Amino acid sequence: RICPHVDDKILTRWNRLMIAGLARAAKPLNNPAYLAIAQRAIQFIEEKLVQEGRVMARHRDGETKILGYLDDYAFLGWAYIELFEATYELTYLQKAIQTTQEMERLFWDRESGGFFFSGMDGEQLLVQEKSVIEGAMPSGNGVASLVYAKLAKLTGEPIYMQHLHEIDQLFYTDVVQTPSAAMTLLQSVLMREYPSKEVVVIGQQADEQLQRFIAELRAEYLPNTAILLAQDAADFQNVAAFASSYPQKNNQTTFYICEDFVCQQPTNDLSAAFAMFL
To answer: CA-CA distance, 50 to 227, in Å (whole number)?
Structure first.
């Protein structure tokens, strides 16, 4: 019999979901192999599926084509955020911010809010699709809302929360009628409505106290906790400006424990940091 056709296309959006999942799993499971796979995959996407700054949708046999859709950009932003939270490398957070800015430029509806499925640089359609309803895959608007909620917590920039509010208003009726079909959007609503904590740690990643602190936090499920880590507070300038002026205390690893961006006194003591966090 003739062998069935094998669909061997490399699709951007599916790979980005895989990257996000592996990066998230690597943290509580303490599995560096998962993280390594995710990092190799994101490197492949950056090298093969981005052409002149434009994210493309598919790659096969050395050929990359089709302009990426909303899902491709939203899932990429999500993947970068999960990679950042697995490594605390600020480069990933910067890439998440840049991807989100480009997503807004190409897909944001400047009249009514929310994201169109097709980009403004693609084929001009008579009717532009804009949906939050999900099936087997998360929706682009749902994941975009989750990216906004995450970036709002990580960067302190109010524009992300403003756009998230606009998406909520636009799709309010759809979500009320069928909440089970918009679960990703509802995740972002929970992140917005519940109190958040921001943890800023300034010090060497190899420091024993810092490693113990991060290991303890990773062992818990903390969806509303944003963790930022840098050797010098100035490193935060282009990604989380609110933390860029936080001084290091006594030239030692310094912990800032904040709630909704109101911080307690910085400390060098690990036990004190845990007490403030809990």
So the answer is: 29
Q: Decide if 41 contacts 18 (C-beta within 8 A).
A: yes
Three-state secondary structure call for residue 8: coil
CA nearest 180: which of 125, 134, 128, 216?
A: 134
- Give per-residue burial for 149-166: e unless 16+ CB within 10 Å, then b: bbbbbbbbbeebbebbeb
> How many angstroms separate the Cα of 249 from the Cα of each of 43, 203, 259?
37, 10, 20
Run of H or E including 254: strand 254-259
d(CA 61, CA 240): 40
* AA identity, residue 49: L
Interval 58-116: pLDDT, tens: 998 888 999 999 999 999 999 999 999 999 999 999 999 999 999 999 999 999 899 99
Separation CA 94–CA 82 (nearest Å): 13
